């Protein structure tokens, strides 16, 4: 039986079943002759079929009119159905008008929550256990499966309990140690007696800002300390020259040489600080020059030749002719490799060899197309625990030796930020007793990519 005919047959059977049953009963007890009964049954079947067809058609039209909430071309034969349809459609129209603004506002609110950049969770308390019943896309993206463990944080649990008890919003700061260190600001808001009772948790990641604050504080403290030491020496020697050593020619020459050395040290620190500030200010601007790495490395080796010769160090430069060009700032790239080669000379073995190797990528550790340049020394190497901090400002493994060879503690910080501006990678690898390798990877890029700044920055400053 087709779906279209089923309603008609159902209505026809419902209309004709009782009369047919009565006639069959009369015929069975002999109260009606068979011929008369047959004629009656035929008439009932005809009437039931026509009535069923009409009623089924009207009910179908009634259903369509209600679903569309429209009375257009509604023509019903069955008595009373048309007024009923009108009343139902009017009720539906009024309800839609009432709920329309509510639905629109709910959709707008949902769109806002979905686009909220900060993670937002809705929690329900069931049998003393809090569970997450909803989260926005930002929460899913930033926390994923970690949300359940987040709710177990003691500080956050205490804030949730306090919000439930007081009914007022609670704002706290939470520090997470795993899976990575993070500083979060959390706001807990409970709906209280408003059903359904729920608690909302809004999180803001403040890791980057607080890291910058700590870095600035450390920077000011370290910079002031680094400048105070030579400045104190200068003041002391000036006072000595004005006083006890005023007429001592030999002491004057000795003190003036030390003063000149301290002044040069201050000058180097200030120059590196200014250079680092300029690089940081430009870090979000992609360089657009076309640079040939082979020519640049050869130029750096040429003007550093006197320093290499004075240090009695051999330079092994391996730069194939097939190296592809990169987009970059020639001045900053020169500064990068000048600092790295200078470090290799200062901290390498005397009469040793500084190697510079350049190859085109991809390769296993650098799968993207680009140029990888290694600066390798044969010095004593660096302990593994120091490597992650080598690019911090003023961080030194051996402060005494660093000052002795003229280091400012800013060279690798400059390298890190300059490489970051080029959207490259900087990796330091070292083995104690063998030497240190500083690896700089620079990506190849289309002109359109450089102009639009679509490449993603990725800088590694660990081994």
Share in β-strands: 15-25%
Distance between the termini: 76 Å
User: Spans of 5+ residues with little confidence (pLDDT < 50)?
Assistant: 448-463
| Beta strand count | 12
Shape: elongated
What number of structural domains do the residues give?
Answer: 4
| Helix and strand run | HHHEEHHHEEEHHEHHEEHEEHHEEH
Q: Considering the protein shown, what is the CATH homologous superfamily of the largest domain?
A: Histidine kinase-like ATPase, C-terminal domain
User: Can you name the CATH architecture of the largest domain?
Assistant: 2-Layer Sandwich
Number of helices: 14
Q: Main sheet, how many strands, which sense, barrel? A: 5 strands, antiparallel
Strand order of the largest sheet: 2-1-5-4-3
Could you say which structural class the secondary elements and strand pairing correspond to?
alpha+beta
CATH class of the largest domain: Alpha Beta
Indicate the radius of gyration in whole angstroms: 42 Å
Helix content: 40-55%
Q: What is CATH's topology name of the largest domain? A: Heat Shock Protein 90
> On the 0-100 scale, what is the average pLDDT?
78
Structure, described:
The protein has about 475 residues and is of the alpha+beta class. The protein has four domains: about 100 residues, no CATH class; about 90 residues, 2-Layer Sandwich (Beta-Lactamase), CATH 3.30.450.20; about 70 residues, Signal transduction histidine kinase, dimerisation/phosphotransfer (DHp) domain (Helix Hairpins); about 180 residues, Heat Shock Protein 90, CATH 3.30.565. The protein has 14 helices and twelve strands. It has a five-stranded antiparallel sheet with strand order 2-1-5-4-3. Strands 7-9-10-12-11 form a five-stranded mixed sheet. A hairpin with an 8-residue loop joins strand 4 and strand 5. Helix 7 runs antiparallel to helix 8. The longest helix has about 35 residues.
């Amino acid at each position: 039986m087709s779906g279209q005919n089923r309603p008609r047959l159902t209505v026809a059977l419902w209309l004709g079943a009782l009369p047919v049953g009565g006639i069959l009963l009369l015929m069975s007890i002999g109260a009606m002759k068979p011929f008369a009964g047959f004629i009656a049954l035929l008439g009932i079947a005809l009437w039931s079929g026509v009535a069923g067809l009409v009623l089924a058609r009207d009910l179908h039209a009634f259903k369509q009119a209600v679903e569309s909430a429209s009375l257009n071309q509604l023509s019903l034969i069955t008595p009373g159905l048309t007024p009923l349809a009108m009343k139902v459609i009017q009720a539906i129209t009024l309800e839609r008008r009432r709920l329309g603004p509510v639905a629109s506002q709910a959709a707008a609110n949902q769109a806002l929550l979905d686009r909220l950049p900060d993670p937002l969770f809705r929690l329900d308390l069931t049998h003393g256990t809090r569970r997450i019943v909803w989260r926005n896309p930002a929460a899913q993206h930033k926390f994923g499966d970690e949300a359940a463990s987040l709710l177990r944080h003691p500080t956050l649990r205490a804030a949730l309990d306090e919000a439930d008890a007081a009914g007022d919003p609670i704002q706290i700061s939470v520090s997470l140690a795993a899976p990575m260190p993070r500083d979060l600001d959390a706001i807990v808001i409970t709906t209280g007696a408003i059903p359904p009772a729920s608690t909302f948790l809004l999180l803001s990641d403040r890791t980057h800002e607080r890291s910058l604050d700590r870095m600035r504080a450390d920077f000011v403290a370290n910079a002031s300390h680094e400048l105070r030491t030579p400045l104190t020496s200068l003041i002391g020697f000036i006072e000595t020259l004005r006083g006890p050593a005023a007429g001592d020619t030999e002491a004057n020459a000795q003190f003036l040489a030390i003063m000149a050395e301290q002044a040069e040290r201050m000058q180097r620190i200030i120059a590196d600080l200014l250079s680092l500030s300029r690089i940081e200010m430009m870090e979000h601007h992609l360089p657009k020059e076309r640079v040939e790495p082979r020519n640049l490395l050869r130029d750096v080796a040429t003007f550093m030749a006197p320093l290499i010769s004075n240090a009695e160090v051999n330079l092994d430069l391996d730069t194939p002719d097939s190296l592809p060009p990169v987009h970059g700032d020639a001045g900053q790239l020169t500064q990068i490799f000048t600092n790295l080669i200078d470090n290799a000379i200062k901290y390498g073995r005397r009469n040793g060899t500084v190697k510079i190797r350049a190859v085109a990528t991809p390769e296993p550790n650098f799968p993207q197309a680009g140029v990888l340049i290694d600066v390798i020394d044969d010095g004593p190497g660096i302990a593994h625990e120091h490597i992650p901090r080598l690019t911090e400002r003023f961080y030194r493994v051996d402060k005494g030796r660093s000052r002795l060879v003229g280091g400012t503690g800013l060279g690798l910080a400059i390298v890190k930020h300059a490489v970051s501006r080029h959207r490259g990678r900087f990796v330091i690898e070292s083995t104690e007793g063998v030497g240190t390798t500083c690896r700089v990877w620079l990506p190849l890029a289309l002109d359109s990519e450089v102009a639009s700044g679509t490449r993603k920055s990725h800088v590694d400053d660990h081994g």
